[in-house]
Amino acid sequence: MTDATFDWLYPERIQQLSKRHWTPVRVAKKAASFLAAENGKSILDIGSGVGKFSLIGAHYFPEATFFGIEQRSELHHYALAAKEFTRIENAEFMHGNFTQIDFAQFDHFYFYNAFFENIDSKDRIDHLIEYSTSLYHYYSRYLYKELNDRPRGTRLVTYHSLEDEVPPSYQIVEASRDFLLKMWVKK
Ligand SMILES: C[S@@+](CC[C@H](N)C(=O)[O-])C[C@H]1O[C@@H](n2cnc3c(N)ncnc32)[C@H](O)[C@@H]1O
Q1: Domain count, the chain
Q2: DSSP per position, 43-79
Q3: What is the distance between the alpha carbons of residues 120 and 177, in angstroms, rounded to a whole number?
Q4: Which keywords belong to this entry (predicted)?
Q5: Is 153 within 8 Å of 105 (Cβ atoms)?
Q6: Could you tell me where the beta strands, DSSP code E, fall in 96-159?
Q7: From the alpha carbon of 49, which atom of ligand 1 is closest?
């Protein structure tokens, strides 16, 4: 599966955002293999966009269930449409802010720098929501606390993260050669 073939699931505007905003197929496979190492786990993508990470993970790792939470209703809608088209059953998509969900429902987490849009004015997905530095700090602190409250053995994968949301209780166990993709385990 290439990025071009996967992105074909979406309208052209969404395809054009892919390189900058959606996880590449090879990264999604590597991240998902770490998070779904044990069967039967529930994995949450925090800021799931059009569902690319979750759908690829769910396709390659059918014994795990992939969940996504996305604040933009348009992107959530495209995630549901892609799930229906691909008939993938072990992926679920929720619409809302990640601060509204109960982290205790999930075993492991994926995070592709969802809050960075608040501090980077280039290449934004849209101009329909408010962005601010204080929102970046609020979300990062909120996620830090939620991750810190998870039990030992919780796995986290970050991609392009500034690591403001990663508590020191998480240790890196593997990383890509360019250090953009990092696998962490809570000790
Ligand atoms: C870089 S994209 C990654 C999308 C997806 N995880 C992937 O890898 O293909 C980050 C997404 O996080 C979403 N997001 C940002 N802040 C959020 C929040 N507070 N709650 C829910 N979603 C959020 C954005 O709308 C965007 O779709």
Answers
A1: 1
A2: EEEES-TTSHHHHHHHHH-TTSEEEEEES-HHHHHHH
A3: 25
A4: Methyltransferase, Transferase
A5: no
A6: 108-111, 155-159
A7: 27
How many angstroms separate the most distant Cα atoms in the chain?
43
The rounded Å distance from CA 124 to ligand 1 centre is: 12
Report d(CA 134, CA 183) in Å as an integer.
27
Above 90 in pLDDT, residue 123?
no
At 101, is the secondary structure helix, strand, or coil?
A: coil
pLDDT of residue 128: 85
CATH number at residue 22: 3.40.50.150
Q: How far is the CA of 46 from the centre of ligand 1 (A)?
A: 6
Predicted pLDDT at 19: 95
* CB of 70 closer than 8 Å to CB of 79: yes
For 104, residues 6+ apart whose C-beta sits below 8 A from its C-beta are: none
Q: How confident is the model at residue 85 (pLDDT cuts 50, 70, 90)?
A: very high
Instruction: Find the domain containing 12 and state its range.
Output: 3-186
Which atom of ligand 1 is the closest one to the Cα of 98?
A: 20
